[in-house]
Every structure is written in C-alpha cells, then in structure tokens.
Specification:
Order of helices and strands: HEEHHHEEEEHHHEHEEHHHEEEEEHEEH
Strand content: 15-25%
CATH topology of one domain: Ribosomal Protein L25, Chain P
Distance between the termini: 34 Å
Number of strands: 16
Mean pLDDT: 88
CATH class of one domain: Mainly Beta
Number of helices: 13
Radius of gyration: 22 Å
Low-confidence stretches: 3-34
C-alpha cells in the first residue's frame, strides 16, 4: 500500500530515565526547545499543541502491532532496512519501549504517561513550507465471484506466469498490455480473477488505494489487500486531466475526478490506460475494525497509521502530526493533531514532511481522503536513550 546508525544500547535506557525528567533537559541547563539533536531539535511534550487532549490509547494499540515486528529484530538491525537515516537508531534502541508497551494499562491517560516516559519529541530539520499531508482509505464497491451482467471488470491475483517472468529478470507488461492479454485470452481472467467488479472506475481507485472491501451480490463482504505490482511507472490521472485542461489544478480531488469520469464514459478506458502501473491483489481475513496490512505487514489503524517516505523515516516509528483535515459536516480545515505510527508507504510519498493518513473504510473516510491536501508538520518521537546519547 500506500507507503540508520548505531545509537546507545537499550540497556542504558533505564539509567537515562532516572536522570532525565519529563521535559528531559533541566540537568543540562537548556530548555527542551534549545537542545540540539544533530540538525534536529528536542522538544518537551508541553510544546506539542493538542498533546494533552489526544486519544493516545489508539496510537498505543497501533504501536504495539509495530512492536511485534521490531521485537523480532536483532538489536543491531536497522529499524527499517530501506531507511537511510541515523536519527532513529537501531532496533535495540526501541526494544525497552516495545517491551514496556505490552504492560501499559488501558485508557488514554496511561498511554500518554507511557509515551512521555519512553520517548522525546524531536523537531525535524526540514522546512515545513514544503510539507504535504494527504489521505487514503479502504474503498467499498460492488462485485461478484462470477463474471456476468454488470460484473465485467476483474481483480487479479499475481499470475504465476508473471511471477516466473519476474524471477527470470524480465519486465512485466504495462496496464494496457495486461488488459489486452485479458481481452485476447492470453490471461484467463475467468480462471484467475478473485472477484468481478461492477464499475471499472472502482477497479482503478482500488489500484490507487491498494486495498478494498467488495460487497458481493449475495451480501457477503470480501476484503482485498495488495499482493504485487508490475513495477511500471505510475501516472497520475489527476495530472493528466489537468494537463488536458479537463479539470483546473486547484479543483482536482478524487471527487472531481470521479465526477469527470462519470460524465465522460467513452473516455474512461483510454484515459486509465495511460497509467502503466498495475496492481495485483490477494484476499484478506482480518478484524473488520482494522485496516489491511500496510508495508510493515501489520494491520493499519484508521486515523493512526501513517504512510511515510521509507528512505527518510523507518516503518514502526512514531510521529506527532500537526495539520488539518477536511472533516465532513465540520470544517475544511479542522485541526488534526494526533500521535501516528509509520506503518505504510506509497509511490507518491516523497519527502521529510510528507505523509498519507489512513482513514479506514466508508463514505466519510473516502470524503476526507479524497479532499485532503494539507500543510503541517511531522515531529518524531524518539526513544529517550537516543536523544540523551547524542
């Protein structure tokens, strides 16, 4: 879906906690906002606007799922092998916090005290003027396990022939080539398809979001999760519509794109085929209150899981996100200040101050995710031993 060097060993964490108070810096004579952490700056939790009113219990639940992965790593292993940053230390630097997370009592107050005891907020060096925070969701659509009537658009698993070609180092076909292979029988969609959808536009947005819930014609719900992709470049349909003069740049959203496609049914297929990227899926059995697995391979938590740029931030890391969100029936710029867990990534998520909030399933989630294009700031929460040891 959408979306390091050696620090002090975790064993030093207990000694550090005994020396450092909640603000963490009185012994050095500096205030929290004055202490440098390389090019970054340590803060106190009091400096995080909205911290005391956030519902951190949900964030703790999400973080515990990340900890199941982190605790399996060797202490000297990178928190995320795809992250080129020393800021977040090694897996061992997170071990004490992850072990303690399992024993925190229920409720927001206990969760808040846990995070304050084990972590220090750190302001990142990036200019927030270049920030961008968007949203994604788990779309819902109509489908059938059998082809027929309105159900003519297949959702495919990763074909065995494609897996063999990838193993042999061969490039996989583009979207248009795959669709042509289905049409001429080179790919037997009737045999391969996981499900058949009623709307090709739904299928396209399923590919963009990377997961979805399909309400079958017999009333059951089938959940789909990302399985593989053809590794071809992704082309934004919104950008194509802007370039073609179909939708003004400042009006582009998922909603306006859908409206344009509905008003121009003859142009849907040629437009969608201009995007070479193609996504393959697998069926998913999961708690309906949780999202599908993200890049970290743990189930996403609506409103708490964040897709980040993995080259800059590791999966499993904690962030305080201070931004706004277009909450339906409230305000287009409702303050959105929450503790988030980096559990996913995405092709379009690039930059230190770039994030994609997972909103979950349903109409409200789709409305928010489709319109969310906000500025804001990510502040990292690092294990306190890492900050003190710098």
């Amino acid at each position: 879906m959408k979306r390091s060097g050696m620090g002090l060993v975790a064993a030093l964490g207990i000694a550090v906690l005994a020396l450092v108070g909640c603000a963490g810096n009185e012994a050095s004579g500096m205030t929290a906002s004055e202490r440098p952490v390389g090019p970054e700056t340590a803060l106190s939790f009091n400096e995080l606007s909205g911290w005391s009113s956030d519902g951190q219990a949900l964030a703790l639940d999400a973080f515990r799922r990340s900890c199941t992965r982190i605790l399996k790593l060797d202490d000297n292993a990178a928190l995320d092998p795809k992250t080129d940053s020393t800021l977040y230390g090694r897996a061992g630097d997170w071990r004490a916090a992850c072990q303690a997370a399992a024993n925190v009592k229920s409720g927001d107050k206990a969760a808040r005290a846990y995070f304050e005891s084990h972590f220090t907020p750190v302001r990142l060096r990036s200019e927030t003027s270049n920030s961008l925070f968007t949203g994604y969701y788990e779309p819902e659509m109509k489908g059938s396990l059998r082809r027929g009537g309105i159900y003519q658009t297949p959702v495919l698993p990763f074909p065995p022939a494609f897996a063999a070609a990838r193993t042999a180092g061969k490039a996989l076909p583009t979207r248009s080539q795959i669709e042509d292979m289905i049409a001429n029988g080179q790919l037997d969609a009737d045999k391969l398809a996981l499900v058949w959808l009623a709307d090709p536009v739904d299928a396209f947005f399923l590919h963009i979001q990377g997961s979805g819930r399909v309400v079958l014609d017999d009333g059951r719900t089938l959940r789909l999760a990302f399985a593989a992709k053809n590794e071809r470049p992704y082309t934004s349909i919104g950008k194509l519509l802007i370039d073609d003069g179909a939708i003004p740049r400042d009006e582009v959203s998922m909603q306006t794109i859908r409206a344009w496609l509905a008003a121009h049914p003859q142009e849907v297929r040629p437009l969608l085929r201009r995007n070479d990227s193609y996504i393959f899926f697998r069926t998913l059995q999961a708690d309906p209150s949780l999202g599908p697995p993200g890049a970290e391979k743990v189930n996403l938590t609506p409103g708490r899981s964040l897709a980040i740029d993995r080259s800059l931030h590791p999966l499993g890391a904690l962030f305080w996100l201070d931004t706004t969100a277009p909450i339906p029936h409230v305000d287009a710029n409702t303050p959105f200040r929450r503790l988030m867990v980096a559990q996913d990534t995405g092709t379009a998520i690039r930059g230190l101050q770039r994030g994609d909030v997972f909103w979950g399933p349903g109409a409200d989630a789709a409305e928010i995710a489709g319109r969310m294009k906000q500025t804001g700031e990510l502040i990292a929460l690092l294990p306190r031993s890492l900050v003190v040891g710098r």
